Amino acid sequence: MKKILMSAALLTSLGGALWAQDKPELIVYTYDSFVTDWGPGPAIETAFEAVCECELTFVPAGDGAALLSRVWLEGERSEADVVLGLDNSLMEPARDMGIFAPHNGIPENLSLPVGWTDDTFLPFDWGYLAFVYDNTKITEVPDSFAALAASDLSIVIEDPRSSTPGLGLVFWVKTVYGDDAAGIWEDLSDNIVTVTKGWSEAYGMFLEGEADMVLSYTTSPAYHLIAEEDSSKSAAIFTEGHFMQIEVAAKLAHTDQNELADMFLAFMADDAFQSVIPTTNWMYPVTAQELPAGFDTLTTPTPIDAVALTSDFRDEALSEWLSALSQ
Amino acid sequence: MAVRAQPINKGIALAGSAAILVVALLVLAPVGALFARAEGAGGISTYGWSVVRFTVFQAVLSALISVTLAIPVASALARRDFRGRGLVLSLMGAPFLLPSIVAVFGLLAIWGRSGIFSDILASFGAGPLDIYGLTGILLAHVFFNLPLVVRMILQGWAAVPVEHFRLAAQLGLGPRPTFRLIEMPLLRGVVPAAFLVTFLLCMTSFAIVLALGGGPKATTVELAIYNALRFEFDLSSAAMLAIVQFALCITAAIVALNLTQNAGFGGGLMTARQRWGDTRLAFWQDTILITITLIFLGLPMLAILFRGINGLGAGLPSGILTSLLISLGIALTSAALAISLALALAHLIDSLRGKFGKTIEVFAFLTLAASPFVIGTGLFIMINPYFSPFALALPITALVNAAITLPLALRILLPALTRIRQNYGQTADSIGMQGWARFRLLTWPQMRAEIGFATGLCAALSMGDLGVITLFAPPDIATLPLVMYRLMGSYRIEAAAAVALILTTSSFTLFWIFDRGGRLGNTS
Fold this sequence. Notes:
Chain A has 327 residues and is α/β, with parallel strands linked by helices. Chain A is 41% helix and 19% strand.
């Protein structure tokens, strides 16, 4: 068994090496779900290879945080040319590592609800964090964190110490409530059923009926509507605004495929890339696209005022969250 | 037995030392690598220490409950012979083999806020059950570990010749003296180590504690390590926490192994389970106990089965067969490695006996206390400058899984080896039976059941464990647990349940083949 596997692995890598002599290879590290059969990876690979005269290889490396720690550990020996799948909550630690290089300019057709000025990271999709619920069971939907905390609704959230949506939630509450954030968390504590390691566990528990609501995205109902023809899921819209999770990519400073990496980053704003995002990654595209049927049923909130997601801001928000929920 | 009949066999010394080296390389070297790469010295905060306290608290409690419940269950199973007993014993291995996230969903289907019991309560206008918090953690840990402890105690029972029980009955000893004279010494031989294994497994528990813990009050050292490595990029704090885990493990191991006392029941000729002086009351007590245990363990397993069968309708991802083969390959390789290491160490420890032997055993237990994240990251730092981590993903995963399952295998094999030496060692020595011949003619036939059980356990555990593969996984190679997590991460909860079913069925089948194979022809 082992022998067969080993020789299969060897053949694959040999094959890859021979192939690579013909065309340059661009290696993009990304998170796991991006490269699966049902994720955006396969379609984007085909589209980019059609124009780049190169071989595009996606390497799945866990989730967003695992991705960053992976390239950080690899340092200059990393085979990665581009890292795709960090988000705005990880941008500052990523920048501080000094392993990413500036991009070639922000695409003109970028159309996000907020302006984009970063010189290193370029967005490729985004979504609003939101609490998703079953609209056949819940009729009185809270319109703010305060209303949610005052209600009897049960929620499942992700741990900000192990998940990026969880971290986004803590940023969200801190941005909206400032010094009162700790109080909101204390009020929310009796609504929280449990705090999971990541989005998958939380969303799975919600679907199993363990809680009335789950921290996810305003685009989550679109998945159920389009892929499962199930219109029973909705996202609660908070009048105080929603946190935007913006997923980004960047070029590594030591890449040996500088031009290809720039080309790929620019390609992220291409229709061929952006058009597959909504129904594969279940997020919003960053350029003006005609959205697939079903997305029109989603309610769109307003974004909260953008704040710099610095380490200090994060530490303060996290420690408030921790002490409020540890009582 | 105080005097060593012969100097230690060279082969045993060599193989044993090699095994110690492998353990050191996999457990200590990664922590060193973390320190070496760390910038600045991170420490453990006051909050960090409260996390350590909670970790120990829940692990001790989980182990205590698991062992306390397992003792009567094991006695009942040891006393009773019934149709399907072999199958029941094998099935009892199943919860332990479940990937933790699969177990969580199985348990929630029964005990959750929308689980069966909550539904029943709701029809009486009560409920729902709320297990989140310490209750949930304990429930899950007992579900996982109770069967394992039962199996370990049953091994102790198997070592008691039936003649002892017949003699006790002939002498007219009641249940109490029988307990004091036979069961008590038997339990002292196996329970401390079973407690230790459970304690260590619960100490490093991560996904379960997070999912069912209800909030940051239930934070374990594993989460702190994960956070330090993945979000804080603080290698030195992670290494410090890993050392705390080691210290806890060493303390627990020293206490437990010193409490262990081998009874030395001697050999016997009769092997059939036969009862003397049985009462109707005892029969019903045992029957009820076994039934309740089977329901407790079986219901979540049934839920996983139904979820999986439902999910099969959602369709399986392409390449699932390749993933299955890769997972099987890793499982078998790592089981072979684990058993070889465990046999080498067990022979060395048994020949050395005394304090030195115990030190080696304590050392081997470290692999169970080591965080897979620390091992993975440390090995990554060590390997990356020289080799592409992709190329070594599969061998490393197999090796690390072998290391993590090694203490379990050792704990199963060592008592058997000691028993064989006590019963047949002098005879074998007197006819000069050593080396391979001794293994083939004496050790193997005498401990086939234990080797089968240990191999099955290691293979199945390795199959379901996500382990370190995430950090090394090359683009086109995915194990079954990886496929399952990827499905869960893309809304495909139903398909993930189907993959979970395939994963659980195949790891259970692996376990069953080895476990059953080892017991075939034996009646124990």
